[in-house]
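Z., the sequence and structure:
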Amino acid sequence: MLWELMQMNNLDFLPKKKILSLFMTCGFPNIIQSKKIFDEILSHRPDIIEFGLPFSDPMADGPIIQRANELALKSDITTKKSLELINKLSKNKQSTSFVIMCYLNTIRKFGLNKFIKNIKNIVDGLIIVDLPFEEETEIKNLLTENNIHLIKLISPMTDRKRAKKILKNSKGFIYYISSTGITGSNKLDHREINNNVKSLKKISSTPVLVGFGVKSKQDVVAISKQTNADGVIIGSALIQKYFDLKMDFNKYLKSLKKFIQEVKI
């Protein structure tokens, strides 16, 4: 029984609808406060927490997450310290799925086998933002051997033929990028999102979550009611509040709590 629990992947037990995934950068705004932020997020029991590993050149991220990366790196966060933080938090993860979002160079620099060894039985999924589908075989096979799902990213620019290849045997969830810009950008086009999500659902039975540009309860409700998506991913909006409150950490924690309560529909 204990062995089965160790092998269980929480992403295989996501709810059918209204899945909530919350993204936060490890080490932001500093290592000590980062732990308090993740404790707050985890206390609300979102379906998924995405842990962003700080990177010096986060090209797919907008200015808000880039700034969070800068602050984290200034506080001397490292990949090793980030993984140690995730490990500590995992003691209380219960049914929440833990997913790491990072860039390929971070993993290569740390060492692929060492990285997987450090996240085994802790992390349920891995999103590698800049990993091309054509180059994923080695990493995907190693992850599969260790019961970690490689989460696939699909954008509005991905044609159906390529989407079929990318999503073949996909597990966990599909990260649908709602716009072609950077994170935290653009207004949501619910009609386009719905058309693209419906198209993805004809290809794969894996849950589809909408990310990039989801900023409020209104956005969450609209995606739930106006599209066939199975849930949302919120990232930049969680971090933005810290800067809106002039980096007052106590006020930020209270604001974060209120915001998460609002978006849990």
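The first strand starts at residue 19 and ends at 25. The radius of gyration is 17 Å.

Let me know what you think.
H.
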